[in-house]
Amino acid sequence: MAKRKIHITDLILRDAHQSLIATRMRTEDMLPACEWLDQAGYWSLECWGGATFDACVRFLKEDPWVRLRQLRKALPNTRLQMLLRGQNLLGYRHYADDVVEAFCQKAADNGIDVFRIFDALNDVRNLETSIRAVKKAGKHAQGTLCYTVSPVHNTESFVAQARAMVDMGIDSIAIKDMAGLLTPSAAAELVGELKKHFKLPVFLHTHYTSGMATMCHWAAIEAGVDHIDTAISAFAGGTSHAPTESMVAALHDAGYETGLDLQRLDQITQHFREVRKKYHQFESEYNGVDTAVLLSQVPGGMMSNLANQLKEQGALEKIRDVFAEIPKVREDLGYPPLVTPTSQIVGTQAVINVLSGKRYDTITNEVKKYLQGWYGKAPGDVNQELQRRAVGNEELIDERPANLLTNEFHKLKDQIGELAECEEDVLTFAMFPDQAKTYLEQRQAGTLQPEPLEPRPTGKAAESISTEFKITVHGETYDIHVTGASPTSDTERRFYMTVDGVPEEIALESLGGFTKDGTSSGSQRSKVSKEGHVTTTMPGNIVDVLVQEGDDVSAGDPVLVIEAMKMETEVKASTSGKVAAVHIKKGDRVTPGEVLVEIE
Questions:
Q1: Using only C-alpha atoms, what is the Rg of the chain?
Q2: What angle, 0 to 180 degrees and rounded to 10, lies between the N-to-C axes of helices 423-431 and 97-110?
Q3: What is the C-alpha to C-alpha distance for residues 594 and 542, in angstroms, rounded to an integer?
Q4: Residues 82-138 pLDDT 10s
Q5: Of the candidates 20, 16, 7, 86, which has an alpha carbon nearest to the alpha carbon of residue 47?
Q6: In angstroms, rounded to a whole number, what is the distance separating the alpha carbons of residues 350 and 347?
Q7: Where in 486-576 does DSSP place strands (E)?
Q8: Phi then psi dihedrals of residue 497, to 5 deg
Q9: What is the pLDDT of residues 47-74, one digit of tens each?
Q10: Secondary-structure percent of the chain, ordered helix, strand, coil, rounded to 5
Q11: In what order do the strands lie in the sheet with 567-572?
C-alpha cells in the first residue's frame, strides 16, 4: 500500500545560508536558481525573515522588500515562507500593534504566503496580533513551538502551548528546534502527542548542529509529522540542516512520496555549490557537527558570536567560563529558550558576569526589561533577588507587554521623513533605526555599496597573499584574513576581515583626529588610572550619554549607555562626586580600559 506524502520546505534562501555564511548570500545569486526551485515541487521555500532583513540593510545594501518582490516574480508556482518573531517582528524589541499589523499586511502584499510565527519565551500572548493580522491578510499563519530542554519544559507544556495557538486560529503547528537539541525519541513523542490532540498539519524544523537532524526527521515521520524542513546539500550539515537530497532518496526508498525529483535537485545544488565558494570569507570554523551543544545548549551561531566578543577583548581563554555561566544565567531568568532575542540577552549577561568577575555587578538594560516583564512571561520562576536588584521599585508587568505600547507607525513615519519613499521604508526604519537611516541616506545619495567580496585565492597566490597573516595575543594564535576596507575619514576607517574564518567588521577610530600636517593629535581618552574614572568591560558603541560636566552623581547612578553584542547596558558611576569631564559622545566606539567619564 502506498505511503503518505511528506511535504518538504527548503531553507536554501534563508536559514541555510544564515547558518553557514552569516546570511550573506545576495539576491543576484538566488535568482538564477529560481526556475529550478519553482519547478522542483517544494511545499514552500523559506526565503525571508530571520536575519535576512538585517543583513540586507546592514551588509548587502539591498532593499529586503525589493528582494521579496523579485523572488515572488521568479517563483510564481511556489509558496514563499518567512520567519516572524511575533511582537518583535524582525527587530529586538516589542512593537506596537499597529506596526505589527502594517508589517504583516505589507509582507503579504509583497509576496509572503506562509508566516512561521514564534515568541522567544513561548508566551502565546505575544503571538496574538501577528496571527490575527496574517489571517486578515488571507495568508497561512503557522504557530511555532520553540523547542528547548529545561526543568520547566516537557511534552505536556508544549501541547498546552499548541492548544492555546490553535484557539487563536493558526493553520498549522511548527516545532522549531533552533539549537539542534531534539533527539529522535523526543521528536517522536512530541509529534505523536500533537497529532493525537490536533487536526492541523505538523512541521518539524531542526538543525544539524548535534548530528541528529536526519534521525529526528525519520522518527518524526514515523510518528506522523506532515512536513519537514531541509536544505539543499550544498548548504546542509553543520549548524544548518539535514540535506534535502538525502531525505528525498531515503523517503522514496521507503515508499513515501515527496513530489521531488533528484535530477532537478542536483541542478539546484550544483548552482549553490558554486555560489558558496563566492562567500568563502564568511565561512565559520563552527560549520561542522558540534555535540557540545547537547551539554551547553548554546546554538552554533551564538557560540560564534561569544567567541568573537571574547577574542576582541583578548579574553578567549575565558570562553569555557562563559559557557559554564550561560546555564546559570538562563536558570536565573526562568529558563528561556535560547533563540533571538533571548540568546543575546542571556549570552551578553554571561559575558559581562565573567569579565567583570562579579555576577550581576552590571546588569544589561535588556535583562532589566526581561525581569520587569517587557518581553513577556518567563517559562519558569526567575531569581527574585536578581529581579529586585534589576528592577528596583519599578512596577512589574504581568499583562501582554504590547498592551502598554501606544500606536507608533505615524510617529516612525514622521521621524524618518522624506527619506522614506513608501510604507515599506518606514517599516525598515522601525526594525533597525540606525542602520536603516544610513541605508536610506545612501540610497538617496546614490552611494550604496555592499561590503566587498574577496576573490578566492588559488595556487601560489593563495600561499603568498599579503592580506592573510597570523597574530598571537595572550598566548592564543589567530588567523587573520583582511577582505576589504572602507574609505578613510577624519575620524574612522572600517576594515572587513575574517578571524579564524569568522567574519568581522572592525572600526579603527582616530581618537584625536589628525592635524593639518597629517600627524595624529593624540588620543583624547586615557586609560583608567584612579577611582572616579568610568570605563566599560566590553567594547561597543555609545548609545546615549546621560550626564554632562558639572552634574552631581551618586555611586550607582547610570552615566552612559553602551551597545555591545546587540544589547544595551547602562554604565554606572563607581563613586559619588561631580562630573569633571565627559570624553565621549553618542555614536563613539569605545574599548575596555578607556576613561569615558571622570568624576571627582
A1: 24
A2: 120
A3: 13
A4: 999 999 999 888 999 999 999 999 999 999 999 999 999 999 999 999 999 999 999
A5: 16
A6: 5
A7: 492-499, 502-509, 533-534, 540-545, 552-553, 558-564, 567-572
A8: -155, 170
A9: 999 999 999 999 999 999 999 999 999 9
A10: 40, 20, 40
A11: 567-572, 558-564, 540-545, 589-590
